[in-house]
Amino acid sequence: MKSDPRSKLRIHLLFWILYYILEVYLDFYWSRYQFPDFKWQIRLQNTLILELGYFLVKIPLAYALLYVYEKVRFKEFLKYLCYIFIVIIAVLGHRFLAHTIIYPYIYNVTETLDGKQPSGFINGYVAFNSFMDLIFMVGLIFGVEITRQKNLLKEQISQLKSEKLDQELTMLKAQINPHFLFNTLNNIYGMALKKADETPDVILQLSKVMRYNIYEAAEKTISIAKDIENIKDFIQIQKIRHRQLTVNFKEDIDHPSQEISPLILIQFVENAFKHGVSESLRDTFITIDIQLRNKILTYFIENSKEGTPHEHSTKIGLKNIRRQLELLYPLHTLAVEDYNDHYTVKLTIDFHDTLSL
Questions:
Q1: I need a surface site. Which of 69, 75, 306, 354 has the fewest CB within 10 A?
Q2: Which long-range contacts (CB under 8 A, 24 or more apart) does 311-316 make?
């Protein structure tokens, strides 16, 4: 993200307008005591002209110092010398305007120190006053510009984080698709070896699921209704192979169009088949309960198991899903329990605090 010149111009114009109003107010108030015999209309008119005249010194000073601060690549010692030199020139310019132009031609008086004693072009007291007037302005403009740059930097960092997040999520999804396809093709391979009549039906179901994985899953979010439909299609593929499987599927969705990142929920179903049902030699079951109420998703899966699962592959898939949940849904909880004869997974997602994708 590059700095927008128009945005910078607007901010600086606003600064100079507000600064001008402030200085007019302060000098107009001061002129009541310095020129008590002047009518307020005359004092205001003179003050407006006076501050415009001082801008001939203040604006070049401000941007000369900013240029040195931002662009010049001298050593710090040399940069400080530049600052001092620029400020000295500005103080002399400020004094020249006040002593030779403003007092004699605007106020039509001779500049004095105490109302009686004439002031010279330069002395300690008047030079200090000019210095303080200029430094006050420099402090303000530097504060505005540094704040603007910090805000721009925050926007750039935020954009980089968002781009990195998108890349990471894309990589995580890319890890899921081959994993799912590999497992499903293994199932079809087993059926083909047995020359099962249902093999063509399974391939047709697989094409539907893969169409979802290729096209729908490419989106950042999809409706939860579509995601649940994909889970049902996946279960249909598995039920054709696992004749002794009992699947209890419940859903209670109050907002079917609720957006969710694709391919998260199905991973737990896939694990239930791969590391539970597929490794069991007896009657097996899977219970799935999906509820969405008031933007709170509760997702419960329980499946029977037998034997020792492939721990390494289980951890890879679970680590992948945990990472996606951390990135996308800060307000989530995930509990995975491994009992002697069954697994349980309970996932809760609060969509009230969802990362904007």
A1: 75
A2: 313/274, 313/275, 314/271, 314/275
3-state secondary structure string across 302-343: EEECCCCCCHHHHHHHHHHHHHHHHHHCCCEEEEEEECCCEE
Of all residues in the chain, the percent with pLDDT exceeding 90 is 22
Tell me the whole-structure pTM to 2 decimals: 0.51
- What distances in angstroms separate CA 221 from CA 13, 61, 288, 298, 328, one per listed residue? 42, 53, 22, 18, 11
Answer for the pair 173, 217: CB distance below 8 angstroms, yes or no. Answer: yes
Give alpha helix (H) positions in the chain.
Answer: 5-34, 40-70, 76-96, 124-193, 199-215, 224-241, 265-274, 311-328
Q: What gap in Å lies between CA 240 and CA 191, rounded to an integer?
A: 10
- DSSP state, residue 217: G
Alpha-carbon dihedral sign for residues 285, 286, 291, 296: positive
How far is residue 165's CA from residue 140's CA, in Å, rounded to a whole number?
37
Q: CB burial class (10 A; 0-12, 13-18, 19+) of residue 261?
A: buried
Q: Cβ of 290: how many Cβ atoms within 10 Å? A: 20
Length of the chain: 357
Write the DSSP string, 108-121: -S--BSSSSSBPPS
Q: CB within 8 A of 24, min separation 6: which ones?
A: 44, 47, 48, 51
Identify whether the C-beta of residue 332 lies closer than 8 Å to the C-beta of residue 349: yes
In sequence order, the 6+-apart residues with CB closer than 8 A to the CB of 95 are 121, 122, 126, 127, 130
- Would you call 275 exposed, middle or buried from its count of C-beta atoms within 10 A (0-12, 13-18, 19+)? buried
Tell me how far apart the alpha carbons of residues 41 and 239 are, in angstroms, rounded to a whole number.
Answer: 93
Residue type present at position 80: Y
- Which of 256, 237, 261 is closest to 247 using CA atoms? 237
Q: What are 110-134's pLDDT values in tens digits?
A: 666 655 555 666 777 778 888 898 9
pLDDT in tens, 148-207: 888 888 887 777 666 666 655 665 555 555 655 776 688 788 778 888 777 887 788 788
